[in-house]
Design goal:
Blueprint (H helix, E strand, L loop, with lengths): L2 E2 L2 H7 L5 H12 L6 E2 L2 H13 L9
Parallel strand pairs: 1-2
Helix pairs in contact: 1-2, 1-3
């Protein structure tokens, strides 16, 4: 079975909404086998925008 990761999950993993959510999501991701995880291209674009706009990261570090 494949698991598609969405923008919120990846943003939380980056610590966008605090340490508690980050830690929860990272624990969840540790339980997903690498070969089962899928990151859709659209999600990458959305995450880039979230990291720049909401997290204030530079385009180079996003």
């Amino acid at each position: 079975m494949k698991v598609a990761l969405d923008t919120d999950i990846l943003a939380y993993a980056e610590g966008i909404n605090g340490v508690e959510k980050r830690d929860t999501v990272l624990e969840l991701l540790r339980n997903v086998p690498q070969e089962a995880a899928i990151v859709p291209v659209q999600v990458l674009g959305e995450l880039y925008n979230v990291l720049i706009r909401k997290a204030g990261r530079s385009p180079q570090t996003a």
